[in-house]
């Protein structure tokens, strides 16, 4: 039995166990909390492909995610497409956005790309606020069917969709890590000039990675309007997504496929538990401090910490 | 819309005044990002912090915001030195500037912004100096003092910085650190000490720009976000480490943004910043006024 097969078997088993466990629990809140955690698994995994392997920081997670969410809204209003085609549309739009930003800035030093992604979110928000078709600053409503068989409830369906996306993203991250693409990206991270000199097609690999990263972030956002039933620019472009997308992989261990999963499950569960007890601002404040403390004290994250010990 | 010459002229003049404010915001970054190669994306957030402390201290002391901005600058200088010490200890010394260093400043920016929301609430704050509602008129052109005074204040700050960097020994050492930090060691000057000092100055400039900002417009904790695109675009357009280039780029930027706002509506102005940034990065990364790399 090879490692790939074991990974997919394990992931599928874990996924089925989660669904079965939540069904036994029989509480809708379980699905909502699970969705919340899993969307961050997707987002953190997407960030990790570019940030973890290639060392290029994408600050625009909220922008890419919102691009995905609004793509889903647009194709629904325009063509009447539902969630699943909406996810593909989101991947296409956000992927193109990543490719475009990357194409314009990636020939320079990495910081310029980071600065561009930082501004991208602000500008996309301006566009959406000024765009009445998707509700402008008032926001857009999505009214969905109550239940879709064979699922018990709509929230269970959303949870399972997100679960599949999370497993898929983690699998893609793992496949990238094992492939020539991943090794090329790691060479770029360690020394871009040396990589270029030995014939790694740096620009092309970076563009593939930004496109993939953008597309997966868009995918993470596509079910968001269905999940909340209503989406306004303020919620879609929330800074919480941008900071979590960076904090989760870095805390879990950037540059490994398991790192973002660990970071996302840890931090998102913590935040989900904390929103019940403390204010959301304080909650985010703690995430910010954790990010700063972790990058300062444990720059290789939780996984790196264990590896050094072990 | 009918083309209106006086509207265009006024757009250009108030754009120039706005550009003065942008120059103040970007000049600190020209020191930290341009000269020291420290990508301080928390710079606009620190500027907004400066604006908030100006509101608090100004209301308490009953002083003009710009006077308060000068008085509080030493506090921010010390704060900047603290940030640099942490940055140097954890990232610069280890050679982890690229990924971890960027994440560090992003975290600092985030902590500041959320901290301001927790301390002051999300609503806007403002402080009206005595001249806020006076407007000078020269022919067809309006010169609101609310814009003119902070613009002149910004120019004075940058002028002071320029003289300091070109005339004093430590100022010259800062310019030297930008060119070759190792060579400075041979002159028996500690480059880290010089960088610490320069970073402190850049944060002090951010807080003074905050004082100018609060005269021009009300501030809220998230005000810094729009400024990230602006100040980096200006800094890069101006040729990174050049103060005259920074002023020229800021004035140009202010005019373009303001004319866009006059003719297409103010909600489009953040898009101008981003468009410029992308165009500059794609076609002239060495800046409009910089030498070819």
Q: In words, what does this structure look like?
A:
The complex is a heterodimer of chains A (310) and B (293). Chain A has helices at residues 3-25, 28-54, 61-79, 83-105, 110-129, 154-178, 180-190, 192-197, 202-221, 224-228, 233-236, 239-252, 258-277, 280-297, 301-309, and strands spanning 140-141, 230-231. Chain A has 310 residues and is mainly α. Chain A has a domain at 27-138 and 145-238. In chain A, helix 1 (3-25) runs antiparallel to helix 6 (154-178). Chain A is globular. With 293 residues, chain B is mainly α. Chain B has one domain (19-224). Chain B contains eleven helices and two strands; from the N terminus they run ααααββααααααα. Chain B has a two-stranded antiparallel sheet with strand order 1-2. In chain B, a hairpin with a 2-residue loop joins strand 1 (135-138) and strand 2 (141-144). The relative contact order of chain B is 0.21. The model of chain B has no long low-confidence stretch (mean pLDDT 85). At the A-B interface, helix 4, helix 5, helix 12 and helix 14 of A face helix 3, helix 4, helix 9 and helix 11 of B.
- What is the H-and-E element order of chain A? HHHHHEHHHHHEHHHHH
How big a fraction of the residues of chain B is strand? under 5%
Over the alpha carbons, how many angstroms does the gyration radius of chain B reach? Answer: 19 Å
Strand content of chain A: under 5%
Largest sheet of chain A: 2 strands, antiparallel
N-C termini distance of chain B? 43 Å
| Overall average pLDDT of chain B | 85
Largest interface: A-B, 43 and 42 residues
First-residue to last-residue Cα separation of chain A: 26 Å
Number of strands of chain B: 2
Structural class of chain A: mainly alpha
Number of helices of chain B: 11
């Amino acid at each position: 039995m090879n490692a790939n097969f074991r990974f997919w078997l394990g992931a599928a088993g874990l996924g089925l166990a989660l669904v079965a466990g939540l069904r036994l629990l029989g509480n809708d809140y379980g699905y909502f909390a699970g969705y919340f955690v899993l969307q961050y698994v997707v987002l953190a995994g997407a960030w990790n492909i570019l940030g973890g392997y290639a060392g290029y920081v994408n600050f625009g997670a909220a922008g890419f995610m919102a691009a995905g969410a609004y793509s889903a809204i647009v194709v629904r209003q325009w063509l009447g497409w539902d969630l699943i085609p909406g996810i593909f549309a989101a991947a296409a739009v956000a992927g193109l956005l990543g490719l475009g930003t990357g194409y314009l800035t990636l020939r320079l030093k990495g910081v310029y790309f980071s600065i561009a992604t930082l501004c991208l979110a602000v500008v996309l928000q301006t566009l959406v606020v000024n765009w009445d078709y998707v509700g402008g600053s008032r926001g857009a409503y999505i009214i969905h069917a109550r239940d879709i068989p064979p699922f018990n409830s709509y929230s269970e369906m959303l949870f399972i969709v997100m679960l599949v996306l999370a497993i898929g993203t983690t699998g893609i991250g793992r496949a990238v890590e094992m492939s020539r693409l991943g090794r090329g990206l790691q060479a770029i991270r360690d020394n871009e000039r040396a990589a270029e000199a030995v014939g790694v097609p740096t620009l092309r690999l970076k563009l593939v990675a930004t496109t993939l990263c953008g597309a997966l972030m868009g995918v993470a956002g596509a079910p968001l309007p269905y999940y909340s039933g209503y989406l306004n620019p303020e919620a879609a472009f929330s800074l919480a997504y941008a900071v979590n997308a960076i904090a989760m992989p870095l805390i879990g261990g950037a540059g490994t496929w398991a790192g973002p999963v660990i970071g996302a499950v840890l931090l998102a569960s913590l935040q989900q538990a904390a929103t019940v007890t403390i204010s959301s601002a304080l909650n985010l404040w703690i995430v910010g401090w954790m990010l700063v403390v972790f990058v300062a004290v444990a720059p290789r994250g939780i996984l790196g910490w264990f590896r050094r010990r072990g | 819309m009918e083309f209106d010459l006086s509207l265009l002229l006024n757009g250009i003049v108030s754009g120039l005044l706005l550009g003065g404010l942008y120059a103040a915001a970007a000049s600190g970054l020209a020191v930290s990002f341009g000269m020291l190669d420290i990508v301080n994306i928390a710079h606009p957030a620190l500027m907004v912090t400066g604006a908030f402390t100006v509101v608090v201290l100004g209301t308490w002391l009953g002083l003009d915001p710009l006077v308060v901005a000068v008085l509080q600058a030493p506090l921010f200088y010390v704060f900047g030195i603290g940030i640099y010490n942490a940055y140097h200890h954890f990232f610069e010394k280890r050679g982890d500037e690229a990924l971890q260093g960027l994440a560090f400043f992003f975290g600092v920016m985030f902590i500041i912004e959320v901290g301001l929301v927790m301390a002051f609430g999300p609503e806007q704050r403002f402080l009206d100096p005595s001249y806020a509602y006076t407007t000078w008129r020269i022919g067809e052109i309006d010169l609101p003092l609310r814009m003119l005074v902070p613009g002149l204040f910004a120019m004075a700050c940058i002028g002071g910085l320029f003289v300091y960097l070109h005339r004093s020994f430590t100022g010259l050492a800062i310019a030297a650190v930008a060119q070759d930090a190792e060579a400075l060691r041979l002159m028996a000057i500690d480059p880290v000490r010089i960088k610490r000092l320069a970073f402190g100055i850049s944060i002090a400039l951010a807080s003074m720009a905050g004082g100018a900002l609060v005269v021009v417009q009300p501030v809220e904790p998230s005000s810094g976000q729009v400024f990230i695109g602006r100040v980096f675009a200006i800094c890069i357009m101006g040729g990174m480490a050049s103060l005259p280039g920074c002023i020229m780029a800021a004035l140009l930027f202010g005019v373009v943004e303001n004319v866009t706002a006059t003719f297409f509506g103010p909600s489009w102005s953040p898009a101008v910043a981003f468009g410029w940034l992308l165009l500059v990065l794609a076609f002239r990364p060495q800046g409009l006024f910089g030498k070819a790399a």
